[in-house]
């Protein structure tokens, strides 16, 4: 135990949430009996006896582990441990293991509990911290993370619908029924109060309309106040799926409003929502896709697409595996649309291949991915045959758009006649790109050189790739030009490794994880992929192949793979949060939402990319930027 400079401690905690919100008197109380200790790397603290109190990391990093060594959480500068010990006597027996030499402040238990009793906001912060780590512990203890137990422990806010239909008690049953029909919902929430503070007072469901109005032959001019269920059962957003199921069972209800602490409605959960949460899986979705006989029915089935992605993210599936799952769903959806097009248009007049490019080809799609595709024909079509393939391509591309895979803003789609070509024409186009150093050629190379066949015999595509690689091998100037183009963008790190954030606009003070991170690694991997003798289309697969062919050191490649995993995980989680709050996907991240340790990891990740870019520059462009 070391001597402590109380003024230094006070200065630090006044800049650290939630301590920074305490009054001067509360800070004085908290500092009573405080001590400081050094924890050596690898040292384990068992939170018992006098150690069973709150600790604040001044400098360093630690892991929270179970008695069996399973990782629960990682924390660093400005974060606390011992929360469960002081609030609940550490029922799970958690231990602290120092990841590096760390300087730690230890608060006196009695002083800490005094401040907890004085400040509700302070107490709530640590209650949420404990709840957050309890959820992580539950995931750690699950043998299979995609288990019913994990699904039951999901917060209800991850499942609920946020688009609410509301009415006031004085409105009539007829008006409410019309609004429910228009919105295609089975319930309407009854609220009272000012517009921004409308408190939930009741609910009317389809069953209420049947049993309380239609069955009794009552006029539809009746007010909602006379038929609603008043003061209905509700849950808070951080309640668990298990609690929702239990409450529905106890009250024999199928609709459960979700309200804020102030009683304001924020969401709705139905029995169908819970069933989808429990049963939705990629295999189920693919099976449903192949049973549909129209684009409209496919579009209805594919409304589950974002929910599936959110579920995959919440189960902590590896980002690379999520990409493969989504590519499998996209591939099957594309094939089904082609089958429906052929059924509508008749058998194709010649063999053809449906090509996909970009993220679908690499199998790293995410929420909000658009489509990039084209057609390869076995010979030059007649005017009539060209009309057939134009209709087929439009059917498929527009169908994908209706099913949630948005149209390409750059019009790189089979519906564009520029991207419907014969085998020979595709071969010539790729050859022209390799022999040209024009910016447009380099841009096309960054898109079209990620290519995969999802329908038809892929031998022609494999031959095309082989010929392209031969062209690249003969043309070092092309690879050098592509390298310089790829390295024009840099990771968002400034002096002293501070993040370079967006300076204006909708995403001010945020990081673009896609274009400032993942795309840079994809570009590096593509360069190595083109230099390899064996072609691979996925980013990780390209880096692994480059190791096998000794084009890259194992350490550099594995660091890039780890960086890709880290950024992809952050992007998916950011997209999940944006989608659940706004219905839109965004790959932008506000780094302030990350813990200090997560920010440290993210800076190291960007530094890894920067180092790899320097290596690529030397290898493929002879050091000339």
TrEMBL record:
The CBS domain, residue ranges: 160-222, 228-285
A UniProt-annotated Pfam family: DUF294
Residue stretches making up the Cyclic nucleotide-binding domain: 18-116
Domain of life of the native organism: Bacteria
SMART domains cross-referenced by the UniProt entry: CBS (SM00116)
Keywords: CBS domain
PANTHER family from the UniProt entry: CBS DOMAIN-CONTAINING PROTEIN, CBS DOMAIN-CONTAINING PROTEIN CBSX3, MITOCHONDRIAL
Protein name: DUF294 nucleotidyltransferase-like domain-containing protein
């Amino acid at each position: 135990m070391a001597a402590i400079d109380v003024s230094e401690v006070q200065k630090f905690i006044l800049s650290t949430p939630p301590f920074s919100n305490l009054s001067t008197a509360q800070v004085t109380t908290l500092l009573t009996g405080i001590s400081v200790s050094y924890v050596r790397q690898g040292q384990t603290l068992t939170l018992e006896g006098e150690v069973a109190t709150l600790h604040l990391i001044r400098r360093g990093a630690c892991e929270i582990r179970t008695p069996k060594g399973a990782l629960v959480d990682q924390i660093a500068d400005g974060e606390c441990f011992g929360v469960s010990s002081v609030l609940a006597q550490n029922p799970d027996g958690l231990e602290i293991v120092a990841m590096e030499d760390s300087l730690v402040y230890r608060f006196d238990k009695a002083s800490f509990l005094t401040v907890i009793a004085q400040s509700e906001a302070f107490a709530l912060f640590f209650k949420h911290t404990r709840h957050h780590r309890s959820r992580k512990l539950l995931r750690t203890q699950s043998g299979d993370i995609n288990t019913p137990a994990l699904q039951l422990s999901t917060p209800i806010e991850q499942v609920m619908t946020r688009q609410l239909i509301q009415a006031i008690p004085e409105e009539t049953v007829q008006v409410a029924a019309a609004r429910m029909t228009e919105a295609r919902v089975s319930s309407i929430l009854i609220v009272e109060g000012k517009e921004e503070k409308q408190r939930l007072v009741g609910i009317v469901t389809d069953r209420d309309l049947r049993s309380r109005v239609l069955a009794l032959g009552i006029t539809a001019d009746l007010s909602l106040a006379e038929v609603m269920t008043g003061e209905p059962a509700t849950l808070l957003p951080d309640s668990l799926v298990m609690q929702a199921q239990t409450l529905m069972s106890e009250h024999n209800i199928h609709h459960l409003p979700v309200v804020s602490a102030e009683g304001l409605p924020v969401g709705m959960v139905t029995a169908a929502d819970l069933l989808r949460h429990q049963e939705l899986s990629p295999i189920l979705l693919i099976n449903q896709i192949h049973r549909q006989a129209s684009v409209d029915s496919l579009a209805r089935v594919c409304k589950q697409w974002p929910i599936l992605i959110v579920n995959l993210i919440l189960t902590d599936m590896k980002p690379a595996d999520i990409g493969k799952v989504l590519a499998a769903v996209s591939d099957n959806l594309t094939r089904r649309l082609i089958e429906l097009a052929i059924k509508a248009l008749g058998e194709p007049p010649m063999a053809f291949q449906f090509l996909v490019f970009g993220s679908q080809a690499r199998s790293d799609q995410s929420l909000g991915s658009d489509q990039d595709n084209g057609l390869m024909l076995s010979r030059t079509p007649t005017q009539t045959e060209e009309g057939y393939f134009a209709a087929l391509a439009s059917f498929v591309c527009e169908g994908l758009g209706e099913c949630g895979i948005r149209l390409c803003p750059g019009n790189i789609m089979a519906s564009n006649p520029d991207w419907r070509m014969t085998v020979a024409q595709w071969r010539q186009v790729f050859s022209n790109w390799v022999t040209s150093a024009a910016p447009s050629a380099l841009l096309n190379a960054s898109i079209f050189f990620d290519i995969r066949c999802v329908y038809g015999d892929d031998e022609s595509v494999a031959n095309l790739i082989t010929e392209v690689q031969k062209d690249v091998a003969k043309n070092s100037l092309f690879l050098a030009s592509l390298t310089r183009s790829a390295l024009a963008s840099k990771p968002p790190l400034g002096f002293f490794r501070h993040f370079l954030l967006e300076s204006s606009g909708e995403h001010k003070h945020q990081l673009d994880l896609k274009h400032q991170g993942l795309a840079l690694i994809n570009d590096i991997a593509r360069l190595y992929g083109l230099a390899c003798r064996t072609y691979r289309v996925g980013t990780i697969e390209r880096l692994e192949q480059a190791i096998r062919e000794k084009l890259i050191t194992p350490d550099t490649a594995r660091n890039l793979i780890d960086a890709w995993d880290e950024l992809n995980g952050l992007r998916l989680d950011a997209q999940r949060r944006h989608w659940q709050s706004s219905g839109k996907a965004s790959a932008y991240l506000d780094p302030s939402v990350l813990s200090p340790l997560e920010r440290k990891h993210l800076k190291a990740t960007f530094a890894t990319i920067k180092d790899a870019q320097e290596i690529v520059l030397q290898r493929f462009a002879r050091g000339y930027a």
